[in-house]
Write a structure and sequence with these properties.
By secondary structure, the protein is an all-alpha fold. It is built from five helices and no strands. This is Helix-turn-helix transcriptional regulator.
Length: 78
């Protein structure tokens, strides 16, 4: 079970944004050039992405990296 609050907050931000865009994990993975299982692991707080992967993930979510981080930080404060 993940214990890092930052990873959990990032996962929630990714899942919420993906849902807002009405995308499946597979669709997001294709857009971002990442694997669906990797997306799932991020959303569940089991993966801490590298900066490069975070940039690709943000682009797939139609966000800048800083916007995605900002969403995660908001999720971490709730």
């Amino acid at each position: 079970m993940p214990t890092d609050p930052a990873q959990l907050a990032l996962g929630r931000a990714v899942a919420e944004r993906r849902a807002a865009l009405d995308l499946t994990q597979e669709q997001l993975a294709l857009r971002a050039g990442l694997h669906q299982r990797w997306i799932s692991n991020v959303e569940n707080g089991h993966r801490n992405p590298s900066y490069s992967s975070l940039r690709r993930l943000a682009a797939g979510l139609e966000l800048t990296t800083s916007e995605l981080v900002r969403l995660a930080e908001r999720n971490g404060s709730t």
